[in-house]
Specification:
single chain, 5-stranded parallel beta sheet
Length: 136
């Protein structure tokens, strides 16, 4: 990560999804609406996201929000959030899903760090409003 990224902000939003096109769309949407208030990071799996969280933490960057898919290969979003909550209890989470059933959504919603569960495809206004109310 470049030094200039740190001078903009020491707060980051981490987007986690196994589909590259979704990650790019999320990052562009956030950057277009929130500008340089945050560093925007992407991970293609929960395992990758945990590694990135540790690296950012060591670099003094505070991840304040994770926007995560629910259905991913390997570790599901709810398992990932439980691990994050144990290590980084201050990080808020917005879950996005196209597949989670009602029971899974209720379980995810009951995790204290989960601020919201949005359905895919999300509406840009809904995403940005949710991010703003969670982070700002």
């Amino acid at each position: 990560m470049s030094e200039s990224a740190h001078s903009i902000s020491d707060k980051a939003i981490l987007c986690v999804d196994d589909e590259a096109i979704i990650l790019l769309a999320l990052q562009q949407e956030l950057k277009r609406n929130l500008g340089n208030q945050f560093i925007y990071e992407r991970a293609k799996s929960a395992e990758d996201a945990l590694r990135i969280l540790d690296e950012l933490n060591k670099d003094g960057v505070h991840v304040i929000l994770i926007i995560s898919d629910w259905l991913m290969p390997g570790m599901k979003g709810d398992e990932f959030i439980e691990i994050v909550k144990q290590t980084y209890p201050e990080i808020k989470v917005i879950m996005i899903t196209g597949q989670a059933d009602k029971t899974a959504i209720e379980r995810v919603s009951s995790i204290s760090s989960v601020a919201a569960v949005l359905k895919k495809p999300w509406r840009a206004e809904e995403l940005i409003l949710t991010v703003r109310s969670t982070c700002l």
